Every structure is written in C-alpha cells, then in structure tokens.
Amino acid sequence: MRQTESAQGQHGIFRAGRTVTQSASAGSRSNRPMNDAPLEFASPRLTQWDPEHTGDQAAREKLRPALFAQYGDLANLRYDYPLVLVDSDDEQSFVQSLSSIFDGILQKIAPPGASGEQLRRDMLRLETGIRMRALGGVEGLLSVLWRLTETDLITACEDAEKDRLEHDLDRARDLLGSDGPLDGHVIDCTEATPVRLLVHGWEQVQAAKAKAFRKKVEGLILSLSDILKADFMKSDKASRPEALQVAIGDASATDFDFDAMSAVLAKGPHENLLSEDRRRRIGATLMVLNSQRFFAPGRASADSSERDAPFDFVFDNCAEALDAFRDRLPQMVDLIKAITIAELEIVNRYRVSQHEAFFAHFDESELGEDELALFPSYLVCLRDGHSGASETVQAFEAIASGLPVKVLIQTDDILGDPTPEPPRASFGGGSTRLAAMAVGVNDAFVLQAASSDLYRLRDTVRDGLAYDGPALFSIFSGATPTISGVPSYLVAAAAKESRAFPTFTYNPAAGPDRVSRFRIGDNPQSDRDWPEHTLSFEDQDQQRVVEQVAFTHADFAICDARYAKHRIPVASSQWHDSIVPVDEHVQLSAEQRGEKAAYVWTIDADNALRKTVVDDKLLRGARRCLKVWQGLQEIGGINDPYVSRILAEERATWEREKETELEALREELDREAPQAGLAKPAIAEPVAPAASDEAPPTVEAAPASDAEQVAPADPDAAYIETPRCTTCNECTQINNKMFIYNEDMQAEIADPDAGSFRQLVEAAEICQVSIIHPGKPRNPDEPGLDELMERAAPFN
Amino acid sequence: MSAPLTECLLRTIDEHYSLQDYQSDISPRWCTGCGDNGILTAVQRLCRDEQLPPEKTVFVSGIGCSSRLPHYMNAYGFHGLHGRALPVAEGIKMRRPDLHVFVSTGDGDCCSIGAAHWIHAIRYNMNMTVLLHDNQVYGLTKKQASPTSPRGLKSNTTPSGTWLDPINPLTTSLGVANVSFIAQAVDWIPELLYDIIEQAYRHKGFSLVRILQRCPEFLPTLFDPWVRNPASTRLLVHEDGIQLSAALSKTYRNQEVHDPGNIHRAREVSSLTEEIPVGILYRDDDVPCYEDLREGERPNTPGLVRTVLDEEFDKFTIWPEEQPTDAAN
Predict the structure, then answer these.
(1) Which of A62, A630, A667, B121 is the most buried (most CB within 10 A)?
(2) Is B324 within a domain?
(3) Any chain B CB within 8 A of the CB of A702?
(4) What is the ipTM score, two decimals?
(5) pLDDT digits (tens, 9 = 90+) for B28-51
C-alpha cells in the first residue's frame, strides 16, 4: 500500500504526542485544552532517502524503527510525561500529567482567540521548560520547578516583557490547584517510575481507607465512652467532691466548696446502671480499639504518645509480607472482635446468652472478605534482575492466597538475551507471561502495562490498588540497558505498540464473566494482528511518499544492541520481490516462505530511511509474539474461534430454514392463483394522548372488596367500622368492656352483651365520625326501647 | 461501613416490639374526642411496624396540647420551650444522626412563636418527621385564636372575631427553599393518617405533615362539613404517593391523581378552600440533608476537640524564645 502525493501527511505511535508549535496554534483557534487539539504536524519532518548507503557496524547498531522519526525530541512534544504525583486527599486524582494541569489552568485564564494567544505561548514555554528539566533528570515538587523555570524565563526575556510575563505566570500559578492546593513530585519516565507511581497510588488508597477506618473506629470509641460516661453520671461517684473538682478543673478549684456542692446535688436514681460485666467488656473493647496499630492515629484520636508505632505494609519480597500478615493475624482478630462487640453494645444488642460463647471462640476463621477489607493491603515491589528468581514462585503464592497483597513486578528487559539459556536471577522472558498466567488465578486483579501508559491507565491502577483481593501489576519500565539513545518512554510505548508487551487488565470486580473482566481494548488497533501507521518520506525525486506500515515485534527488537547481528540494512539496488514486510512474512506458511526474506523500515542516526532485513531469529520472535497476542485477543473476545464457529453454524442453520420456508411459499404460490381484495388484518387505533395538566385526572372509585366490608352477616347485630376509628376514647369511656381497642388501637365491639342497648346508641351518637352502628336491641326487656330504636335508626 | 459480621449477629436476635412497647406508663390526658389520640395511635403503629428501637427514637415537642405527645411515648422525649421544638430536634439530629427523630408541634407552637424556626427547618432539610397538629385554636390555654384560626373566629383573645385570614402552612412551606416533603392528613381518616405519616417517615429529609385535627372542647363543629361530607375531601392519589384501599375509595370518591413531584400543582391544590386536600402534596428525594452536608471527616471526639483547641491557642501563644530579651529592652 504505497502512494505518492504532495500533500502533508501525518503519523504517530503516540496518541497524545504533538509538537509544541502545533499545540499553541491549535489553542489559538479555540480555547479547548491543548491535549484535545487534532493531531497534525504543521511542519512534518521528512526522513532523507539514502538508497545506496548501508552503513557500517556502528551505524547499524543505531538503527531505529522508521516510525520513531517524528519523536526524536521529546522535550518539544506534549505527551503524558512528566507526571505529577499529586499530594491530595482525593484518591481519584493521585497522578496528573503536567500537560493536563497546564490545560486546566489555561482553560480558566486564557481567553479564546488572539487575546489569549500570548498567554498560551508563555505557558507553553513554561511547560516545556519544566519538561526539559524532568527529561534532564531534575526531580522536585511542581511548585519548586515552576518557580525555577519561571525565573529562567523572566531572566531570559526582554526588559519590556518582564513585567507582563511575571504577572501572567503569577496569575497562572495562583490557579495551580484553585480547587485546593495542588502540588506533588514531578517525575519523568525512568526506571524508577513504576515503583514511585505504584507506591504513591497505594499510599493514597490507604490514606482513604485509613480515613474511613478512623472515622468508624473513633465514632465507636466516642459512643462507647458516652455509655460509660452516662453510667458514671448516674452513679453516686459523679457527685462526690473529688469528681466535682475534676469537672470544674484545677484553675477554679479554690473558688468552690466541693463538699457543700456534693451535699446539695441530688443523687442519681441508681436505676439502669451498667452491670459490672458490661462495664468491663466495654472497657476491654475500648482498649483494643485505642491501641490498634494497623492505622496511624488521626486528629480525632486520643493521646497517641503511649501507642506503639503503626505497622509497615510495604515490602521488597513476598515472603516477608506473608509472614507479617500471619504474625498480625491475632491482632486483626482482636480488632474485628472489638469492632463487632462495640457495634452491638452501641445499639444495646449484646446478648450475653447468645454472644459470650460466640466471641469466646472467635478466631481467624471468622474473618471474611469484608473484614479483611478493613485493613491496609500489603504492597510488594519486585524488580526483574534485582529480585531473586524464586520470588516468582512467592509472588504466585501470594496472589493465589486470596490475601490483600499487591505485587508489583517491574521488568526493564522484555526481550532478554538472544542466547537460548534461561537467564539467572531474573524472571527473564517469562516476565512478559507472568500477568497472563496470573489471570488463571481468577480472583486476582491483574494489570500488564508499559510505563508509557501508566497515566492513561491511572483509573485502572487505582482500581487494582483499591481491590479487596490480591493484585498483580506487571509493568515494563522501558529502561532497557541494551537499548541506547532511545528514551524510556519511547521504548515502553514501542513495546506496547509492537505487541511485545501488550496492555491488558483482568478485574474480577468488573463482572461475573471473563468477557466483562478481561480487557485488551487499551491496545492500539486491538482487533488487528499489528497496528498500522502511515509512514511518509521523501523519495529520490523529492516527492512525498506515503505508505502504510505495520509495527511488529521485529520493529521493536531491532532497537536492541544485542540483536544487531540479526538484522542488516539493504541497499535499494538489492531490493526484489522476495523481500517482504515482516507482517506479511509471518503470515506465510513454511512452504510459502521459501527463499523470501523479511524487512522492516528503519532510520539511522541521520534519519536516512532504509529497509532492514531481519533474520530468522527475529522472525521467530515475531511469530511467537503474534501467537501470544492472538491468544489474548481470544480471551478478550476478539476473533474468538468458538464464537466464530457457533456464528457460522447458526448462520448456516438460519439460511437453511429460510430457504425451506421460501421454497414452501413458492410451492404454495405455484398451486394457488393470486386472489385480489383480501381483507387486511385489523390494526388497533393508536392510544389517545394523556389528558393535559389543566384538567387534573380523576380516579374512578373502586368498589370495596368483600373482605373489606365490615358489616356483619347478621343485619341486626351492632358493629363498628373499625378501620375508620380515630381512637378518640369516646366509646371506650362509655363502656370499656363492650368497646375495646384492637392491636392497632382502633375500637371494635368486643361483647355487645357487656352493656346496654342504650350505651350502644349513646356511643353511636357521640362518635364524631359516625362509625358505630347499634343494630337492634338484644334484650327485649330493656326499658325505653322504642325511643332508643328511634334514635338508633340514623346509624343503622 | 458497617461490619457484615455485626449485621449477621443482629439478625440472630429475635426481638419484636408490640404497640404496647411504645406506650408509656402515663395515660393520655387529652380531652375525649381529641384528634391527638388518633395521631398518637398512628405514630405508635408506625413505630411498631417499622420496629424502631425505643432507645433509638426521640420525640421532641414545644408547648401546647400536641406537645404532650412525647410523654405518652415509651421512647426518648424532649418537651421543650414554646416554639423551639425544631431547633432542639435539629441539635439532636446533628449530634446523633443515628436516632429517629419525630417532632410534635401545634399550629400555635409552629406557625406563631416558632415560625422562624419552621421556615429555616424546611430550608435545612434535616432528616426528621414533623407532625403539625393543626386544630386551629390554642386549646391548652382555653381557646385563643391561633395563626390558622378561620377568619371571624370568636375566642378569648378575639371576642369580636379574628380580623385576619389564616396562614396556610402548606403554601407557606411549599414556598421555602429546599422543601422536600409536604403532606396533609386529617385525623378522621385514620387509614390515610397512618399511610401519610409512614411515607413521611420513610422520606429522607424534612417531612412535614400537617394534620387537621378536631378540638371537641373549643371548636367541636369546626370540621363537621368535611367530616360528615366525604365529597368535600379531595384525596390525592398517585403511584408515588397515596394509594387507597377499596373500602376507602368507595367512601371518598373525590380523588385526584397528583404527582408529588409537581410543585406547581401542589401549590394550587394546597390553596383550595372549599375542599380539604389529603395526601402527599410534594416530595423531592434529591434535596440534600444538612447533616449530610455538614458531616465531618471525623467524629468530634474529646481528642479532636483538644487538638483543635490546642492548635487555636498555639496561634496566640508567645513562646519563651520569642520573648524580648533584656538587652533588647
């Protein structure tokens, strides 16, 4: 796929990267954040065509993938790095990119259009200056680097501009974290990045957990203390002279006669005092809550000077982390027990008969996921080449244990040595497979990613750190010692781009099945074998050529000095049809390959473009990488052969059925002559629209059900419409044996013979809601019945 | 963050409160026939049906006949100052948000001396259930005109009849910012009285139920036109509001489908004079509660109070090394 054109093209393996000049001009057209500007290059830098030169050995070692040509100067690109490890209570934003921070500030202070252009350019110079310092290895707080860079810019600018520049940058600095102080260490993409970012994120997650824990436990302590305090205040001790003196305080001790005060104060009723057992139980619970060491005391905690130091939860090997967990298990049990007892005591639901035996046998078997989630997780930071190879086994033991252990495995070298021997004291080539293997644990959170993607995956990182169970973070730093002259960020990005270290996530909390838990969509063009990009260059005739090229594992591997002998640049005079791109070559069968060679596009130190033939070792690596990637695609639901097979079968079945139906219809048509004037099936009229608001809808009253009819079967019997009773006491005061209240405190006739017919009539007359129906007299000898029946008539 | 273990253990405790568990040892001293009796019964039924632990339930009142209700409940109670039931209840809710807070207030207590607290309590929208017993007269002090007394009512303080139109607690409440639940009930339809109080209790926020109640002693015939003629009572029904039983629906045929989310219609219905609207007039579940807005990051423990006070005092402390030296003097 090759074409020649004169128009400008574009390409890029970094989605967020763009030149500084372009960003500023995009910002001038609109006031949107610079990172949202369209990716286009105002002045594409074309690589030079050098058809004959194949270079010597030194030049060969400096060969880089052709797609790197646009990214030779990272300082002048806006991309995710440097990062700011934000010191904030908000665990949601534990890391921000420098560019996003500047974008946020510009959105607030730079007016759209030309009037804000100067400010945008000044801020861009400031951002570039800070980025250059970070790339140069300078680290520090953002506020410090801002000040240093601002001073440099003001010093370097013309006198007439100094005041304006200082004013603008000061105004911008005031907005740094206008929603709260925003500061933190600025870090670039280096070998230290994975550990620093993970540890910082872990600390933020633990800080949030500690905050919630302290709020809960301090609340429990307060409530338990209130119970003891209320009990004390009810006791005689509270009104004793010494207690009164303590209550008043030493400062006024001489102003009062506490003996006299004690004598005049009323003594407590001595009712409902706590039992000695309960007081002791609450005291013991308070002691456990106050002395816990899993979280440091907070502002609301009692005096912490007597406390033991809190536990440490960060380790450099899994064995120590697991040992620490086991050693602390008894204290975890005691704490959970204390919390549970406290919660029961506070709601007054501790039942000695039920709970005493339960808590007597309370042990670690009672700790479920919810209980473990209250405690900090354990963070273990391992590094390929530095941690012992046995740590791989320990790490898997930790992850498979289901305990809240977060394991970071940092890998600096994913290619490994070309020799086939297994590496010593290193996870070696296996490091790229660790994460995929950990997915099989099923309840462990797994993230594999390159350092270049850590900012984009910050939410995923946070999810993993906050996940209640175990988690494995397999991070490729990009700081491969044998790849020289290429920034770690580029190496890490290329590893992901080439599928050598693809990004994937397995989050057990994301859903019930693997489809929802496993994600590979963070990879570029994840539905393809290799991502394809546009390579544009200038040919011998100074014409621009645009070609679609795949970025393969071989493109990534040629950067490594150890693989220099496995590739060789080829002069264009030696090109022929048997030299095919690597992505095509790896698709060929062994027979098809025949004498065909494979090449990748490369550039040398002078940006001269050439085809570089790779040998079978690199091709084998590419094929193996592709197989692994296709396996991940399959797990992620892309090109799933099972699904494809079922779909094909279903489609074939459906087509057969339809064909059968069609055939039957055709036969029917052939048999019967067409008939005109067939009646169409009746179609229901559309539902009328709802009534307008002006006329509020009314409701047709529903008939009362039989069950709700309260009239008795005997028409002469007295009865009350009990559901309508307003509990006014009128009838019960007339005769509380004849009229009683039911369980809902509504009146009913308990015994019509418990009183006279006169009382029934009087109750009916006095009832304000007229719900008493006297019926007919039960005693024919009762005096004055005629008159009473006349009075009762309106109520029957 | 409640430990599931505790929840499991709580579920094993088989305790059931009967209606009698909410009845105090003191028998109600309201007049026979007083609507307060029915309100008390409805509240006790609610407590039983919701199984509210008496020690986790508080009834707060001001002064008046209605404000005697806490005495008759076997729960915590606070019989406060005239017109000050709401600020007391707000203080309780602020300090102990775990408690179920009910307020029993009257038309004089709430709409006259306590009117300022009433308005702002609506605005604060703290999670509590307020029962406004509105008998349209001061009964405890033997018949004086209240803010809701009908124009022309002759009483001890208005022997020639009142000169002003009464205040309408419903329209007034519906005009206050952050209003989240307004309903009206009448004591002579106990079924609806219970249903409305139940919905008020379940609403998270400030739930105001105006209950028209009869005073058999001083205004015995005031509500007769409505008590004796069901057609003059308009029942507001809705799938998100009150739904009637078949028996009640047969008796009270004057019904309107009213969406409690429609505040404009709620204001119109509340302004009816010939008919009494009964039901949920307005409900907005999205209004935030003040106690939630002001919930601190940490409980106010003695340790925190001491820490904060020390920090504040330290701002004004003159440390020895900062004291001027003799040489400087």
Answers:
(1) B121
(2) no
(3) yes
(4) 0.75
(5) 999 999 999 999 999 999 999 999
